[in-house]
Amino acid sequence: MKASTFDINGVFVENTASIVGPKEAEGPLSKYFDKSVKDDLLGQKSHELAEIKFHLSTIRYLINKSGHKENDIDLCISGDLLDEISGTSLTMRELDIPFLGAYNACATFAESLITASVFISSGKFSRIICSTSSHFCTAERQYRFPLELGNQRTPLSQWTVTAAGAVMLNDKPAKVAVKRATLGRVIDLGVTDANDMGACMAPAAADTVCRHFAESGLEPDYYDLIATGDLGVAGSELMKVLAEKRGLKLGLNYNDCGAMIFNRVSQDVGQGGSGAACSSSVFSGFIYKKMLNGELKRVLLVPTGALCSKTSTLQGESIPGIAHAVAFEVNV
Amino acid sequence: MKASTFDINGVFVENTASIVGPKEAEGPLSKYFDKSVKDDLLGQKSHELAEIKFHLSTIRYLINKSGHKENDIDLCISGDLLDEISGTSLTMRELDIPFLGAYNACATFAESLITASVFISSGKFSRIICSTSSHFCTAERQYRFPLELGNQRTPLSQWTVTAAGAVMLNDKPAKVAVKRATLGRVIDLGVTDANDMGACMAPAAADTVCRHFAESGLEPDYYDLIATGDLGVAGSELMKVLAEKRGLKLGLNYNDCGAMIFNRVSQDVGQGGSGAACSSSVFSGFIYKKMLNGELKRVLLVPTGALCSKTSTLQGESIPGIAHAVAFEVNV
């Protein structure tokens, strides 16, 4: 494959927003999220409508807290996990902003950030919102079983994050800049278990991270934090083994947003969090704020996606993965 | 909303490819498609696998006929109508090319062309493939009813095109150039009939086309052809009425890819073709070849998408539409 790592200049994070559900608000990153709700149905008739409300509220909050109006935003590049990204499409009908729908499963946030960064660096766009949502209740019933069945969860399962995260990228200099990116390819090592998303995505994560360092010439300790999106604990360990087989040793600066967002001992979440909003809420909440206060200066975010549908799983297809990497640096 | 029309410089169509099913091969554009097949199952176990084979064969044929290898392609920006664009994801696992998944329903081809054009004009990418697929049998059972039921089709229904279309964009000067684009927003006038896609999408098409002319300062007769994606005959008439209400009168240079691809008198297709591959196969086949031979010099392509899922329809949501416009001109 051609090298797919490239530098990005003149693209900055103007602001972020995150709204999370009750379980996420009980986790270790609680204080970093902008808002949390006590009822994950948000007073709606369905969890799909609740997910739309999460997504719409997060984008509106981001626009408001930044002192803007819808008219100041050039474009939204957004997605979710629902069939036909219908949650995002119905979110966007409430906003008078152009919309491009993205879908790379839980790697969608990376796709959105990279696309927006290239758009801004082209000089044709100034301010773009990148956002994703996910909801435990909509994802479980779509990809696995009706929640009412109360199926026992398998040891390698993960817990879909109920949240929305949104980032406003801009061409005006700000403290945190987008500096480079690596585009991922679809990789399939034959895993067929829709309850073991970490194993489906780890090969793609290892491939993208290894290529990022090979193509950029950087060493892993260049970054204060290398964070995959939602491999969970078991998936992260697998990813480290796969990377080491290719000669890349990841150290203590490697972590996973899915492993970070929940307390596995007390929260009964299997291997940790997952979902399209896992990386977007952890970045918009925890990582961005740690960069603002200077505790993190260089971060490589690698959202990871498992590319399946209920139909492809029922037809016996294995589940390929994809991962894209985006590097953020405190602008000095 | 902010103006969303912008010029594109230095982006050209290097080549196109289209492979269509038997019904499309019997239609009036038959001779313009690169290849057609006699059996729309293509020897596969399921129609989903057949759609993947259409998509993969079209991309591989495009790469081969252009004298390239996978390694020469920077990126694929592609999508389809299947839940989680699983057909495209499984297509991409066979290709060693970076992948960004796009979803704006049947407007996905426009999203892909615009994103690729901005990527190339940023100077970071040279050669990008934009592609979409759709299949009558996968779309009908996903969005409406199992085919085995033999449900009677309603008068306003359309026939999903079975095909894949792919365009290779490049930064090297060629006869046909991408010149400008208008990004669309999500518009919902409250239509709830999933069998009347034309009415769902016409308001978005009218909005994007009206804004294109208002923002570019061009007149409709600047283009030899203004082609919406898949409004069908009734949807196109509705779109013209909506545009005229906003002061834009469309003349004989307006047509619709869905109205063009089938013969409504002899082919029993309701209002005409639809689907994510309707605009991509008609552009890659008919329009591009008419531009190459000089019969068309300036074309505004406006792929149109209906943003629904089976779940959103069953939950009683109305169906919003979106449309993006891309202008191609023969490079003189």
TrEMBL record, chains A, B:
Top-level taxon of origin: Bacteria
MF (Gene Ontology): acyltransferase activity
Entries under InterPro entries matching the protein: SpoVAD, SpoVAD_sf, Thiolase-like
TM region(s), chain numbering: none
Protein name per Swiss-Prot or TrEMBL: Stage V sporulation protein AD
